[in-house]
UniProtKB/TrEMBL annotation:
Domain GMPS ATP-PPase: from-to ranges: 1-66
PANTHER family tied to this protein: GMP SYNTHASE [GLUTAMINE-HYDROLYZING], GMP SYNTHASE-RELATED
Lineage: Eukaryota, Metazoa, Ecdysozoa, Arthropoda, Crustacea
Keywords: ATP-binding, GMP biosynthesis, Ligase, Membrane, Nucleotide-binding, Purine biosynthesis, Transmembrane, Transmembrane helix
Transmembrane segments: 21-39
Residues that bind ATP: N27, G28, G29, V30, N31, S32, A33
Top-rank taxon: Eukaryota
InterPro entries to which the protein is assigned, alphabetical: GMPS_ATP_PPase_dom, Rossmann-like_a/b/a_fold
Name of the protein described by the UniProt record: GMPS ATP-PPase domain-containing protein
Amino acid sequence: MEKREQQCNDYIRSTVGRDKIVLMLVNGGVNSAVCAALFHKALLQGGDSSRVQAIYIDNGFLRKDE
């Protein structure tokens, strides 16, 4: 599993490059939250995670009272 995580990090870094910012829309579900966490971890530079801008979108499809 550790190798898979490293492969994902390497792919994200090579795709995004060194100086770009990622705009990411998340809906609060597990899938988008995990993707946002992976992007933050992969693109972390010197303790600064500002290269990933995750924006929460309420799409109206969450479970009742969430």
